[in-house]
Design a protein that fits this description.
The protein has 645 residues and is an alpha+beta fold. It folds into 2 domains: 3-354, PUA domain-like (Roll); 382-644, Beta-clip-like (Beta Complex). Helix content is 17%, strand content 18%. The strands form 7 sheets. Strands 4, 5, 6, 7, 8, 9, 10 and 11 form an 8-stranded mixed sheet that branches. Helix 2 (136-171) crosses helix 3 (179-189). The longest helix has 36 residues, at 136-171.
């Protein structure tokens, strides 16, 4: 990375004074965050500091034991953990370092050590920097860092929930684990949070406008917003170089009745004065986050805006979308709807940014309900699958007159040769009432199910066995995820950049099933005949092993081993998708994809002919293109890339 891109933020002590509605007071304000409404579908979030009755360190130690892992430096007899390293050759500005001026804000301290050990993790740095003029390779580097960190967070979140399910089943407990809190706490203990050694003003490298998040803690993990509950993230006056607080980001989620949001213009209500039910019961004060926003306006410091709103299908009923940078242009004290005084801040979105993610979400909703009303021109078909999928597959082309997908037969699942089904017939589980952890199919997967109760992939494997037609379990079994068909609404579209492409009209959760890569399976001899006729084929053996990244917890558990079984022999078949195909065959190629291939067996037991199932490697927002790494084509230039691009 070019370190000239990392610019120290201007010293606010020596900036020329500008007009401001309020003078800077000469007091050190009490640090109180602006709290946002809690998720309605979840119990109140546990504080990051371990509450009575919950020893988070012991939970962390228990999870480490599942992989026979050891903590660097070892666990002492009293439960204390020796210091973790603070440096890494790839650190740049992404590895936490100790802050010489600890913050009095208790919400910014996580206590993970055993009771009495006195160990606390370092707070965030108060040093303000701005990242500018990144080179293309730097942008790719940081994007990859963010993607891997988010993938680790989500993999760890799913993992701890699954382990909690097993423990609750064994102990008969009723309380569910907040996997997001536990995953974030463990990652912080392992120094895996990003952007802790610098407080970045403006855009976070590697985070794109429109990126979607299901959990507030994930925003903290990547440094987009540093407060677990507070709506205003800022450097407190006790840490600021000039003794004045500076705001860096806000979350707009409708938590205050006086908020006004028209997209590019926001009237944001300050924090304070509310009771436990979210009702304004007293006047707000110009302190803490309110003062930080006013000071950011005074010094013309841009702030990041994240919008939170309800979203059906979200694990907690909400989603948070990064909408870019805004300038605070005005602030005033007003009488709110409750009759109490509130501070208001007017923010205007900075020009020349890509479209807001929240706007794209709203547009996607209109496409799902009234596609022709939202896009009067461009739709060639409103169901390319001809009702073979559970949800219609739109076909959109406003680029040229190429309608070739209309002339292909739509496949929902792959067509295998008949002899494939002659191997291992009649082998299935006997779980008539629903599969448990000790069922026959779970044993074939190494004694565990591949999915959690919501159908999210726990970790990638060389091969996954699902329950099939010879099993006694019902169609709703948790081990039949890929057989239930697509769960999202997709659109095949024409692109000037990538040829044909696929995008979803729904938000796709990381780890969730997308669809099967379907075609007609050919033997090697058949493939030779097809290639002589000029037909294009797909070679499953060329798909890269990106499944190894999903659920890879080696950064957390030092003894983590990538699954090596169940394994498959070398795949020696090809797939013809020239005349019969499904939406997967239109996915664009990328060396940094958001979709991966996972091999699955369910309707037969022939290890040489698995189904090619596609899963999301990250949260994919609506209308963002899906991509897949097809690997390198051979010298004859065969492969999917020539088919659709």
């Amino acid at each position: 990375m070019d370190f000239n891109s990392l610019l120290p933020f201007p010293d606010l002590n020596h900036l020329p004074s500008s007009s401001s509605t309020f003078p800077a007071p000469l007091i050190v304000p009490k640090i109180e965050p602006k709290l946002e409404p809690l998720d309605e579908t979840l119990p109140s979030p546990m504080p990051l500091a371990a509450p009575p009755g919950l020893d988070l360190f012991s939970e962390y130690n228990r999870l480490c034991g599942l992989f026979h892992s050891t903590i660097p430096g070892g666990i002492q007899p009293n439960g204390a953990v020796s210091a973790l390293p603070n440096s890494h050759p790839d650190s740049l500005a992404l590895v936490p370092v100790p802050d010489p001026n600890p913050s009095p804000n208790l919400s910014d301290v996580v206590v993970l050590s055993a009771p009495g050990s006195g160990r606390k993790l370092p707070n965030r740095s108060a040093e303000l920097v701005r990242i500018t003029d990144l080179k293309a390779e730097d942008e790719l580097y940081f994007r990859d860092k963010v993607r891997k960190t988010r993938m680790l967070f989500e993999s760890l979140r799913v993992f701890v929930i699954v382990e909690d399910e097993k423990r609750r089943d064994a102990m008969g407990a009723n309380r569910r684990t907040r996997g997001d809190l536990k995953a974030a706490a463990i990652m912080r203990e392992r120094a895996l949070w990003m952007n802790r050694d610098k407080r970045i003003v403006g855009s976070i490298p590697g985070v794109l406008v429109g990126d979607a998040f299901f959990f507030r803690m994930e925003l903290c993990v990547i440094g987009l917003h540093g407060q677990a509950q507070a709506g205003i993230d800022y450097v407190p006056s006790s840490q600021s170089s000039n003794g004045e607080p500076i705001a860096t980001s806000i979350i707009v989620s409708g938590g205050y009745e006086d908020d006004e949001d028209s997209g590019d213009v926001i009237v944001y209500t300050g924090h304070g004065g509310q009771d436990n039910h979210g009702r304004q019961v007293m006047h707000q004060k110009l302190e803490c986050g309110n003062l930080a926003l006013e000071r950011s306006m005074h010094y013309e410091v841009e702030v990041r805006v994240i919008r939170g709103f309800k979203y059906e299908g979200s694990p907690n009923g909400k989603v948070y979308v990064y909408d870019g940078l805004y300038k605070i242009v005005d602030t005033w004290f007003d009488v709110g709807k409750s009759g109490f005084g509130v501070f208001k801040f007017k923010l205007i979105r900075i020009e020349n940014q890509v479209e807001m993610g929240s706007s794209i979400f709203k547009f996607a909703v209109s496409l799902r309900t009234q596609p022709l009303g939202a896009r009067p021109r461009g739709y060639i078909s409103l169901d390319l699958s001809k009702k073979k999928e559970k949800f219609p597959v739109f076909f959109f082309n406003d680029v040229d007159m190429d309608h070739s997908p209309m002339y292909c037969d739509y496949l929902v699942t792959t067509v295998f040769p008949p002899y494939v089904y002659n191997v291992g017939r009649g082998n299935g589980c006997n779980c008539a009432g629903g599969c448990l952890d000790d069922c026959f199919c779970a044993m074939k997967n190494g004694g565990e199910f591949a999915y959690d109760l919501q159908g999210i992939l726990v970790r990638g494997k060389p091969l996954i066995f699902e329950c099939g037609p010879h099993c006694s379990c019902p169609p709703t079994c948790r081990n039949r995820v890929t057989q239930k068909g697509v769960r999202n609404r997709f659109e095949v579209f024409r692109s000037k950049e990538t040829g044909w492409g696929v995008r979803s009209l729904d938000l796709i959760q990381a780890g969730s099933f997308i669809c099967e890569f379907a075609g007609v399976v050919l033997t090697r001899e058949q493939a030779q005949i097809f290639t002589m006729n000029g037909d294009r084929l797909v070679y499953p053996s060329r798909f890269t092993g990106n499944w190894k990244q999903w659920g890879n917890l080696s950064a957390v558990f030092s003894d983590y081993v990538c699954p090596e079984s169940p394994s498959t022999p070398p795949l020696d078949f090809t797939m013809d998708v020239s005349r019969m195909r499904n939406i997967a065959c239109y996915l664009s190629h990328s060396t940094s994809p958001n979709v991966m291939v996972q091999f699955v067996l369910y309707d037969h037991n022939n290890l040489s002919f698995p189904h090619l199932m596609l899963f999301a490697m990250e949260n994919i927002p609506p209308l963002r293109e899906l991509s897949l790494d097809y690997g390198v084509a051979d010298e004859s230039n065969m492969g999917k890339l020539a088919i659709c691009n």
